[in-house]
Write a structure and sequence with these properties.
The complex is a heterodimer of chains A (397) and B (375). Chain A is α+β, with helices and mostly antiparallel strands and 397 residues long. Helices cover 45% and strands 15% of the residues of chain A. Chain B is built from eleven helices and ten strands. Classes of the chains: A alpha+beta (397), B alpha+beta (375).
Chain lengths: 397, 375
Amino acid sequence: MNLDFSAEDIVFRDEVRRFIEDNYPAEVRAKQDRGEPLGREDYLAWHRILGRRGWSAPAWPREHGGPGWTVAQKFIFAEELGRAGTVRVLPFGVSMVGPVIQAFGTPAQQARFLPPILAGDAWWCQGYSEPGAGSDLAGLSTRAVRDGDHYVVNGQKTWTTLAQFADWGFFLVRTDPTAKKQEGISFLLIDMKSPGVTVRPIITLDGSHEVNEVWLDDVRVPVENRVYEENKGWTCAKFLLSHERTGIAQVASSKRGLEKLHAAAAAELEDGLPLSQDPILARKMAELEIELMALEYTEFRMLAGEGAGKSPGPESSLLKIKGSEIQQRVTELTLDVAGRYGAPHLVDLKSGDNALPVGPRHAVHAADIYFNMRKTSIYGGSNEIQRNIIAKAVLGL
Amino acid sequence: MDFTFSEEQRLLRDSLANFLSDAYGFAKRRDALRTEAGWRPEIWRAFAIDLGILGAALPEALGGLGGGPVDTMVIMEELGRALVVEPYLDTVVIAGGLLKRFDTPAARDAIERIIAGELIATLAWGEPAGRFNPADVAAAARRDGAGWRLDGRKAVVASAPWASHLLVTARTSGGPRDRDGISLFLVDKAAAGVTTRDYPTVDGGRASEIALDGVMLGADALLGDEGAALPIVELVLDEARAALCAEAIGVMSELQRQTVDYAKQRRQFGQAIGDFQVLQHRMVDMFTQYEQSVSMTYMATLKLDLPAAARAKAVSAAKVYVGRACTFLGQSAVQIHGGIGITDELPLSHYFKRAAMIESALGSSEYHLRRYQSL
């Protein structure tokens, strides 16, 4: 038992760090620094750079084009990306549908869909939730009816993140309405440019357009785009939910958030003194640091177990619970530190664009981010659902 | 980065766990606590001779096995799981951990006898007014001829009633709370001028108030350099805190296990109370805090060899987390058990009491949060 990184790991870390410094797109960095919303090309630019280096899918096995890294290397890579504050490689292709296609897809599906995911040429979105199927996902009612070598799909999906940029979507649809609810679901890959697919924005409380409604109106989907057997889609869905846990805890990103919080607290003055010297705030930040440390080492233990051949079990739901709580707490304290400059909402009322910021840099968007991050304890299975999972699958209750 | 135990560590855990499940059942423990002595010397002999764990992390040259903090962690976790009162932490981890840093005949002899199970020693560092700061030492030692004269009061000295020897911190120079000027002495508890008031503690242990009035010591009683003991005491206290965290995860694993078992069999409103979501989620929170306590214990244990400030920061972070988890798991376990949880008859209440005392032992969570912030 030890915490040491090997000499090769240190070399690897330096290589990753240098690669990011040398290759991270300056125009994306500038937008991030200005707090501007990022577009499709901003995300894909970095994805493509990583893809050319063979680093866009750290967890993929070598046979599917992944780098075949050790657990320590995967950890170091995530840590370095978080440290540098890069835009994330979006999880929908690399972490979600990619592993499902690897595990359940046909060789033809793998050959067709995996390379564009690696390269950053295909943007995926996730068609899971519906207005009537949130936490009770298996209660979904989007219908797919077989018609020759096609399915005809009708229904409505919601909370579809960044669907406005998507080329493809992976959808859970009901193919057998008479079966028990988990047993009549299929997993379909749908071209978002298909006739009958309509994407409508949902504006969230922070004013951003991140999620969407997706309407499916007599959309014809080739049967060859079904992954795994008909009516076995729930198996794919469960696999996807429990599979890629690397990064779910968002430790590196919370560390960066805490560093920014410290810097903000040092820059704010109260009674002529840096706010960071306020014992109550300092205490809250110390408590949060300790919580984050506990999460970080729990993730280490789970990743190490994964590396030793143990697949991540339902106990990794705790990474999601604690990870989201800590992310939220960081944004809550950051808004608190922003003080009165938390209030300005910097949007041009006519154009809807970002207006010239007022107040200190750390206060700009502090409220938007705080409001936006409430999603983390809701999405991906709400934290209450995660507790249900642990209660049932780990504690046997 | 590796979180696996070695084959030897797995065997160590299994043999100790097997021994304790045979020899340390709850009824036997309760009967032993009610005796005058309050502990079982035969258990200690078995630790020394049959299991060989008293020397697990003590030097090979003196008869130990030369192991490290991870071995101590494995042992302490099992001792916690069985709620062992015998003074492994005080005598082996703390007294042994201090003595092995001093290369004097008296220290070497004491270690050999600790490993053999022949000597019980404990560190008297806390004082009635000092709370948890090991530098807040009012006890004083003055040179007297070739030796020393020791005066002072030591408070709630754990395991002292069972000990024949005390390691005593005393000020040889400097003012209150100065970091310099604290010296460490090995004192025979039978020496003239040592008076003790012995008593049981709420968690089944024994402790003493110790008065030192003109205790005359030889020159060889001083361990290490005069006035330079504090860094070593802090190092060993940090090692002890990591070990205490390991004991805590043993205790908490039982609080968790017994509570989940009980919730599955206890029925109300025609169903197992474990079917109620409000109780399920509380037990999940217990599970989460337990798992993260394990992580923090590993982290602190594996960082004990870092430079002092980094080591102290890691250990204090772990002690904050584990201490608070002890409180949460203990209170939740009792709450979910309901009325039976507050009876003396149920083993669970004894785990709760030990968890509560671990929270404040060697510095409370509040103390360690302040220490963490100051580093």
